[in-house]
Amino acid sequence: MGLFKIIKTGHVVEIYEFERMPCKRGGGRGQQSERWEMYRVWNGKRVRDRVRRLVTANFGPGDKFITLTFRDGSVYDLTDVQLCYKMLDRFLKRLKRRFPDVKAVIVPEFQDKHGRGAVHYHMICNLSYIPHKDLEALWGCGFVGINCIDHVDNIGAYVVKYMSKSSSDRRLKGLKSYYRVGKLKEPDVNWTDDPAEVKGEIGNASPVFQSQYGDDYHGRILYSQYNTMRKD
Is pTM beyond 0.90 here? Predict the structure, then answer.
């Protein structure tokens, strides 16, 4: 061991410790398309990690977690993902006209509990105060729920739990697994072979999660996640 990849998104720090220098895998888009089923779950994890880091880097207490649902009759088919995406696009255009500086990450979810398969959306955003009825009018397709997230110290993980199944769902093949709105900060990524630099990022924080795995490309990999807001 000795090569570290540090991904920092606000107060959440992820450390990958590699046995060997990572190298890029080959394979063009055609190959990826042919193997979509084989790598569906793996790709879903990559998307969830991407969303989790974007959310943690850009949002915090005081921001809003919003659920957008479709009422019966608002679209011809509540399970038609492409049609529902069109309605979401229209909503986002109206939202950006009223709030030009809005930033958001939006993930779809399917209401499969009762077998309906209806699409709905979860949105984390930086909206200032807006009356509930005004937000429902902007959405125009059904119910809008607003949840308080002031108690959440890892908002990225909170949002991702709603997309844990949807991001690798076959119904999203060829479609977006998430939406991003506005100019969002990207996670800070740094490579180092200096353990002191790693220590400087995490301080005295203890890992909240660790796992170990490996492959032929990287050798053995130790993954650790730290939340510097949490006190031991």
Answer: no
